[in-house]
């Protein structure tokens, strides 16, 4: 959910904020205690649900918590088996051209569910994970002294410039510069 959209919706629903907030302490009957991890760094936050701002905040937190992932893999901390199978297929086909449909077949899930499970388990899409694996393999090859063109071909990049674009984006230097740093070999 877009934070700016949430903020706009929240402030549109609220009455104008008073110039001076009321100094009265809310009664315990009208107070909701929330865990601070939802609303900030405080250990406990007292909210006056009679106050329209606090009530709107409670509604927003409730709406966001209703959208939180509730899968078994998320609760147990272990990736879903389909996500693990997809990760293994990506590692096995590092240099190959594996599409999402092929990956979904290997994982035993449809491509939409696989993408959702994979992102939940590993924090990125299958393609981003594959690029990360390829970059890691290219780094190892370059550190071993291989040429950037050879490393690109061995690691599944289309060509040397494709490796160069991804390498600069990820590490801030060219593959040749990385190779020079690691091996002190001329190009």
Mean pLDDT: 77
* Distance N to C terminus: 48 Å
This entry's quaternary arrangement is single chain
Strand content: 5-15%
Order of helices and strands: HEHEHHHHHHHHH
Estimate the helix proportion, in percent. 55-70%
Query: What is the number of helical segments per DSSP (H or I, 4+ residues)?
Result: 11
User: Could you give the order of strands across the largest sheet?
Assistant: 1-2
According to DSSP, the number of beta strands is 2
Commentary on this structure:
The structure is a single chain. With 187 residues, the protein is mainly alpha-helical. It has 3 domains: 3-66, no CATH class; 77-123; 131-183, Arc Repressor Mutant, subunit A, CATH 1.10.10.60. Helix content is 61%, strand content 5%. It has 11 helices and 2 strands, in the order H-E-H-E-H-H-H-H-H-H-H-H-H. It has helices at residues 3-13, 36-39, 52-66, 72-76, 81-92, 100-107, 111-122, 126-143, 148-155, 160-171, 175-183; strands spanning 31-35, 44-48. A two-stranded antiparallel ribbon has the order 1-2. Helix 5 crosses helix 7. The protein is elongated, with a radius of gyration of 25 Å. It starts with a helix and ends with a helix. The relative contact order is 0.07. The model is unreliable at 18-45 and 71-75 (pLDDT under 50).
